[in-house]
Design a protein that fits this description.
188 residues, 5 helices, Acyl_CoA_acyltransferase, Acetyltransferase, Aminopeptidase, acyltransferase activity, transferring groups other than amino-acyl groups, three-stranded antiparallel β-sheet, alpha+beta, GNAT_dom
Length: 188
């Protein structure tokens, strides 16, 4: 199991035990407004959880659940993904994705978790770059992506919405996260 830790956070691969936290997060319309545009049902969240667990099994990487180390509180998720999205242009590199519950936004936790995931990706993946897609209306995620080294390279229509495509060169600039550690076991 690939577990990452930072000064304040512990990142563990998404597991069945995360279902209640995931259901609460994905039902929150404030959280999903830039991602899906609506909250998700328990059934839809269950399918996402199964996809995430399977992603780790098949690819050896995937979404991590982010928790505060001190309290165990569920913060959100960050991941290295291969979702084979149906869009033009298609992604040709690992995708990074992240989301933090509204209660934890504005506390630099998304940045801290994303930096840990990028450090892991730079160390364990051979691809020369990573990509991500962000709604043009999601200014906070765009600022975060740019802060950790992502730069826009195009636009795509994804499921009827325009998204901005970003790329980051492997080993690109990120701000240092004090105390970041990688406790990796298993595939990856």
């Amino acid at each position: 199991m690939t577990v990452l830790s930072t000064e304040r956070l512990t990142l563990t691969p998404v597991a069945a035990g995360d279902m209640d936290d995931l259901t609460a997060l994905w039902a929150d319309a404030d959280f999903t407004r830039h991602i899906m545009g609506r909250g998700l049902s328990e059934e839809e969240v269950w399918f996402r959880l199964l996809r995430d667990v399977g992603h780790w099994q098949v690819k050896g990487y995937g979404n991590w659940s982010i928790r505060e180390t001190a309290t165990g509180a569920y913060v959100g998720s960050v991941g290295v993904l291969d979702y084979r999205r149906d869009m033009t242009p298609p992604f040709d590199a690992p995708e990074l994705g992240w989301g933090v519950a509204p209660a934890f936004q504005g506390r630099s936790m998304a940045r801290e978790a994303l930096q840990a995931a990028l450090a892991w990706t730079d160390k364990h993946r051979a691809e020369p770059r990573t990509v991500c897609m962000i709604s043009p209306d999601n200014a906070a995620s765009i600022r975060l992506a740019e802060r950790v080294g992502y730069r826009p390279y195009g636009h795509a229509d994804y499921k009827g919405s325009v998204v901005t495509l970003f790329e980051r060169v492997k080993g690109g600039p990120t701000e240092a996260v004090g105390g970041a550690a990688d406790r990796t076991g298993g595939a990856g």
